[in-house]
Write a structure and sequence with these properties.
Elements lengths: L15 H9 L7 E5 L12 E2 L9 E2 L3 E4 L13 E9 L15 E5 L11 E4 L4 H9 L16 E4 L9 E2 L10 E3 L7 H9 L4 E5 L3 E7 L3 E2 L10 E2 L2 H12 L2 E8 L3 H13 L4 E5 L10 H8 E7 L2 E2 L3 E7 L4 E6 L3 H19 L9 E6 L3 E2 L5 E11 L2 E6 L9 H5 L2 E5 L5 E2 L4 E6 L2
Parallel strand pairs: 5-6, 12-15, 12-16, 13-14, 16-20, 18-23, 21-24
Antiparallel strand pairs: 1-11, 2-10, 3-9, 4-6, 4-7, 5-8, 17-19, 19-20, 21-27, 22-26, 23-24, 23-25, 25-27
């Protein structure tokens, strides 16, 4: 890997959209792997899935009641019930036996999910029979051993009529055998997990989760379990960034703190490369201060582009590629809000693209601001905000102090209020675009 600047990624003073577009050029969906069904949630399928059977595989009852011939129930009412003879019982999990048949004037006691016995074409629920009425009158529960339920050979009264197909789930009414049920590119949500289980897919081909190495830089940092001494602060960036990555579906590896010397920083980056990550993320050290050494380290180990992005918070942003594999590297500012906003704007879309997802950006809405919003310096400003509703419309307010070191502003926010770079002031009552975080 050349140690010279890659002119294709050296950009200065560009917009957020331009920076994101250029970053995403270096990412693509990761290779697929097979994972157990229970581990597929949130991942993207890499192959089409076809049904191996009809779903449901047989006609079954959607109610606890009696399987009947619909024509035998016609005219039934409270004042003129229809009397049928109980000829059998079908619990869930059973199968019709030779001789099971619902003929004229007959009924088959049946439980939800049980297969429909031959001859029946409808189910009437218990509540509309003498069994259900007796339960109502005596306040008994169905599981009560004394609940009256007609035995085979006894009669049951029906108090309403049913139509053919009533309370029956027909074979294949959901999915037919051989039918395409889920396409490649589908995100596996809880509903998809259920569908996959229903077609017997216990191993799912998905784009694998990205492995991301996370590193903080700075002599001023100590780990959170340490009491910070004079001039020291706790390292919150690694933990916040790792949490963001995990929430988006990546697998973060926290590499701790690199000190402000080139040797230690280089060693940490070598440690990161040894993990064979799909992305390396660092915070701090990307500006022009005396101890901002990340650019220098990257120049020795790969290719680097230093960007000045027209964004607030987080103007300094560094993107490069490291090692012989050209592992993408994203260098974020050190202020904690700048770091988290930078991950939202640039890290999250890269992670989602590696996962094989298509919608890479957060949803945005328009809201009426309840307070004036100021923007200076010709940069697109992402203010931490709170979106609520009033009288059917979205309204927005800020979380308060918008300093890039006010980490609680991210904790309080459910959105980022976007002030365009060519807008310096938005009056209270005007609209603002908001990126939803929750």
């Amino acid at each position: 890997m050349s140690q010279q600047h890659d002119q294709s990624i050296v950009l200065t003073g560009i917009s957020v959209a331009e920076a994101r577009e250029n970053i995403l050029r270096y990412f693509s969906p990761l290779p697929h792997v097979e994972v157990p069904l229970g581990e597929s949630l949130g991942l993207v399928q890499a192959e089409d899935i076809y049904a191996d059977i009809d779903i449901p595989p047989f006609a079954n009852s959607s109610m606890d009641g009696y399987a009947v011939r619909a024509e035998d129930t016609q005219g039934a009412s409270d004042g003129s019930p229809v009397r049928l003879r109980v000829v059998g019982y079908m619990p869930a999990g059973a199968a019709p036996q030779p001789g099971d048949f619902v003929g004229p004037g007959a009924a088959f006691r049946i439980m939800t999910g049980a297969p429909l016995p031959p001859g029946a074409d409808a189910v009437i629920r218990f509540e509309d029979t003498s069994e259900g009425r007796a339960l109502d009158n005596t306040h008994l529960l169905p599981q009560d051993a004394h609940a009256p339920s007609p035995k085979t050979g006894e009669d049951v009264l029906l108090y309403r009529s049913v139509e053919p197909g009533g309370s029956i789930r027909m074979a294949g009414e959901d999915v037919r055998q051989g039918e395409l049920v889920l396409r490649a590119g589908t995100i596996v949500r809880p509903a998809e997990v259920g569908v996959l289980a229903s077609v017997g897919c216990m191993l799912v081909k998905v784009h694998r989760r990205p492995r991301v190495a996370v590193l903080a830089t700075g002599d001023e940092l100590v780990e959170p379990d340490q009491a910070p001494g004079p001039g020291k602060i706790r390292n919150s960036n690694n933990y916040a960034v790792a949490a963001q990555l995990a929430s988006w579906g990546a697998v973060p590896h926290n590499l701790g703190i690199a000190r402000d010397n080139l040797e230690h920083l280089t060693a940490k980056l070598q440690q990161a490369l040894a993990l064979e990550p799909d992305l390396i993320v660092s915070s701090a050290g990307v500006s022009v201060g005396d101890h901002d050494l990340v650019k220098e380290a990257l120049l020795q180990m790969g290719e680097v582009g230093v960007w000045r992005v027209r964004v607030r918070p987080g103007k300094p942003l560094l993107f490069g590629r490291l090692g012989s594999r050209g592992v993408p590297f994203l260098g974020l500012p050190g202020n904690p809000v700048s770091s988290m906003v930078g991950m939202e704007l640039f890290g999250r879309p890269a992670v989602l693209k590696m996962l094989g997802k298509q919608d890479l950006l957060r949803p945005t809405i328009t809201a009426r601001t309840l307070e004036p919003l100021s923007n200076g310096g010709g940069r697109e400003h992402y203010m931490r905000g709170i979106i609520t509703t009033e009288e059917g419309e979205y309204v927005a307010r800020t979380t308060g102090n918008q300093g890039s070191g006010i980490l609680t502003s991210m904790h309080l926010a459910n959105a980022l209020l976007i002030i365009p770079e060519d807008v310096t002031y938005i009056e209270a009552g005007q609209t603002v675009r908001a990126m939803l975080l929750d």
